[in-house]
Amino acid sequence: MIPKQSLVKIHDWLWEIPKSYRHDMRVPARVWTSEKMLEDILGDRSLEQAVNVTTLPGIAKAALVMPDVHEGYGFPIGGVAAMRWPDGVISPGGIGYDINCGVRLLKSELSFNDVAAHLSSLARELYHEVPSGVGRGGTIRLNIIELDRVLKDGVGWAIKHGYGEDQDARYLESSGALADADPSAVSEHAKNRGRDQLGTMGAGNHFVEVDKVTQIFDSSTAKTFGLWQNQIVILIHCGSRGLGHQVATDYIRLMQKIMPRYHISLPDRELACTPLSSLEGKNYFNAMAAAANFAWANRQLITHEIRNSWRKEFGASASQLSILYDVAHNIAKIEEHIIDDKPQKLIMHRKGATRAFGPGHPEVIEEYRAVGQPVIIPGSMGTASYVLAGTKQAMKESFGSSCHGAGRRMSRHAAKRAVQGGALRDQLAKQGIHIQTGSLSGLAEEAPLAYKNIDDVVDVVSKAGLAKKVARLEPLVVVKG
Fold this sequence. Notes:
Elements lengths: L7 E4 L2 E4 L11 E4 L2 H7 L4 H8 L9 E8 L6 E8 L4 E2 L11 E10 H4 L3 H11 L14 H10 L1 H6 L27 H7 L12 E10 L2 H7 L5 E8 L2 H18 L15 E2 L3 H36 L7 E7 L1 E10 L2 E10 L2 E2 L18 E4 L7 E6 L1 H6 L3 E2 L9 H7 L2 H10 L3 E4 L2 H6 L8 H10 L3 E14 L1
Parallel strand pairs: 3-4, 18-19
Antiparallel strand pairs: 1-2, 2-3, 4-5, 5-13, 6-10, 7-9, 7-11, 8-9, 8-19, 12-13, 14-17, 15-16, 16-19
């Protein structure tokens, strides 16, 4: 554990572990947090992991940590690291096992009063329509040729096959497809794990959630995003399922074996990496992009399933659910940022961190460019979620990055020891939250007490200027595996 006295306070919301802390650090490590939240962060190995990240070859500026940080595999969850392109390293641990785990927000034209009487039946309909649970497959089973098309085209494949409309892709990060995807870099084992998992949620902290907009902080930006008080919206949180997990597993094992070939020595073998310019680095990046495309297609099929449920519940004439935005929080991308007053191409690793590009950035679609990219931050089950907007300050300080959620403060095993799933379901029902789940044990693992306070996390990124608050959402229906 890193002692608090080793950190230098830069301002109320930013702390630094200086490069002098350890002899092998190439850059400092920085963490956005409040003093109150810092005490919890110091209780696990997340900052020690951030220091380890600073030793990676080619790392630029600093290893960055968001306020929802907690201990992960190699990299802390809530970590951001930029490697110089093209010879800096790429590390699968800096993206995570659930490649392109991300969040999509769907907007309705209905208010709370319009749906209040339907919530119980809507919850059942969504649970029936969206397959969930550990290892569970869906109704679509693809042959390898067709799966390769999904891996190459991402959401384009889904729309072409009738699972959405052309305009849907416009409101997704990278339009729902990374051009570097190469299906041949994905193992047969990984493909077989994903063949029947399109349109499925999985388990763990993944969910479909019906929310009510309970507070608008910035009326102008909210209007640009199409959000209003008491509006009903739906959040989708999931990723690349078994396919993405296997891609990570395959390349972590490979890189752990071959790092000596590139004269790379690290304090933690979980940081396994190779230069992006190497054959193995390129293959991982192309496989990661393919898994990311699978995840965008997966969320698109879930969107289609939710739209079906919506029509069944509210009638064929019900207004279409439109996409506000879809953003990844476990991904690597090649981006250009300013370092020392010069534009530099970087290999951005975001693991449990959300892209938060500010106003005027060319990668923000025209509809949102004046106000900044939407940043969707889901809270823990039973607590609030937020819609934020990226800022120019984030571009300067955090490579255009923000937090990704509440962040765990308790392990899944500890949560199950502290909470009974049935009692939690009853408690949430008393709060007016309709729960549908296939596993009461899994429900207990995701209890609100297992997570940090989402309001505190969002306050830090807001006060630090990494993202601005736009709207607060509260759950009405939660569907989990």
